[in-house]
Amino acid sequence: MSCVFRKKLLQFALLIALIALSTTSDGVTQASLAKCLPVDIKLSDVVEATSARYASGQASGVHKITVDDKLNELKATCSDDNKLVDGNGKQIMFYHLTGCWGNPPADYQEILQKQRDELQKLKQQYTVIEMTCNPSGMPIS
C-alpha cells in the first residue's frame, strides 16, 4: 500500500469519525440544530450544572448538561421554517433564569414570582429549556 493511499485512507476515516461525532443519536447533525438556535445560545452552553459531592460533603466535581445534551434528550430537529422543535413537533424556547445571587436584591421574591409566572405561561405553548444562571455549578455565597 502506497504512502499516498494510506494518507488518503486515514483522511477519509477521520472525516467519517468527525461526521459520526457531530451527529445525534437520531441522525440530526449538530450543524442543522445550530442554525435554528437563537443568536445568544450555543450548543455548548450549559443548561444545568450541579455539584457532585462525596459523603464527606466535599465537592468532587460538577456535572454539566449542555444545550446539545438537552436537544438530544428532546429529540429536537429544525422545522421547515427553521424553528427548533422537540420530538413531538412542539417549538422549543430558551429561558435564562435569574436568581443566582450571593446577596439577593430587596425585591428578589417579586423577581422570582415574575419568573415563575413567565415560565408557566411559556410552558403552555412551548417546550421550555431553562438556562441556569450559574453555569459553573459552584455554590454562590
Fraction of residues in helix: 25-40%
Largest sheet: 2 strands, antiparallel
**What is the molecular shape?**
flat
Question: Count of helices?
Answer: 4
Strand order, sheet with most strands: 1-2
Could you give the topology of this structure?
Layout: H1 3-21, H2 30-34, E1 46-53, E2 59-66, H3 67-73, E3 77-78, E4 84-85, E5 92-96, H4 108-125, E6 127-131
Question: What does this molecule look like?
Answer:
The chain has 141 residues and is an alpha+beta fold. Helices cover 35% and strands 21% of the residues. Strands 1-2 form a two-stranded antiparallel sheet. The protein is flat, with a radius of gyration of 20 Å. The model is unreliable at 17-27 (pLDDT under 50).
How would you briefly describe this protein structure?
The protein has helices spanning 3-21, 30-34, 67-73, 108-125; strands spanning 46-53, 59-66, 77-78, 84-85, 92-96, 127-131. It is an alpha+beta fold and 141 residues long. The model is unreliable at 17-27 (pLDDT under 50).
What key phrases describe this protein's structure?
single chain; 141 residues; alpha+beta; two-stranded antiparallel sheet; two-stranded antiparallel ribbon; 4 helices; 21% strand
